Amino acid sequence: AQRVTQPEKLLSVFKGAPVELKCNYSYSGSPELFWYVQYSRQRLQLLLRHISRESIKGFTADLNKGETSFHLKKPFAQEEDSAMYYCALSGRSRSGGSNYKLTFGKGTLLTVNP
Amino acid sequence: DTAVSQTPKYLVTQMGNDKSIKCEQNLGHDTMYWYKQDSKKFLKIMFSYNNKELIINETVPNRFSPKSPDKAHLNLHINSLELGDSAVYFCASSPRLGYEQYFGPGTRLTVT
Q: Closest partner residue to B97 among A99, A103, A109, by Cβ?
């Protein structure tokens, strides 16, 4: 079974402060992890994926297999970062074979205050 | 040039009715999905189609029936709507299974 845990439902920081959104996962195979962002009343957008190891909008995330974590970080939060952030894991579905599915965490609502 | 589109954007209907939501992607992707986002913003996969073939059905009531007439379309038909069906339904597509997904704008369904 695959599971994604985002322990913080809400996270509030001030503009310019560092921000870290936590994500832990449970998966027996080799996972592929993503962060998606959903701005108010908009569609989900891919923010970044662990295999690309890139920085998008100042956000980075490192896969730590030992701690089974994929925390999202940004050194200086901006007001426009306020959104819902979802961590997601791509792994095989229960039907097995080559059927992959994306399992989402419950999301963390980030609010960046001025 | 919207990549993944859904219609309608809003749908308000009464219990017991039957309704459909349509999804189209112009990305040339092989795989399409339906997700349900509940009032607590929890996102859960419902179905996944690969090359028009159903490959994932996540214990969704059989009142929900997806249909994929071709690779670019995945429609969702819901029979005998219930109050608990009220949610935002997102369609998504990906180049292949396991790749990053691109989401539609969502359809906000309200059952009264």
A: A99
Q: Using one digit for the tens of pLDDT, what is the confidence trace for B65-81?
A: 999 999 999 999 999 99
Q: pLDDT tens digit string along A50-104? A: 877 777 889 999 889 899 999 999 999 999 999 999 999 987 655 555 557 788 9
Residue among A44, A49, A101 minimizing CB distance to B90: A44
Question: Which residues on chain B are in Cβ contact (under 8 Å) with A98?
Answer: 97
Read off the DSSP letter of residue A92. E
Q: Are B41 and A106 within 8 A, CB to CB?
A: yes
CB-based contact B56 A42, cutoff 8 Å:
no
Rg (CA), chain A: 14
Could you tell me the two tokens for B35?
């997700």
Which residues are registered as beta bridge partners of A24?
Answer: A5, A69
Q: DSSP letter string over B34-79?
A: EEEE-TT--EEEEEEEETTEEEEE-S--TTEEEEEEETTEEEEEE-
CA dihedral B10, B89, A55, A88 (to 10 degrees): 160
Size of interface A-B (CB pairs under 8 A): 54
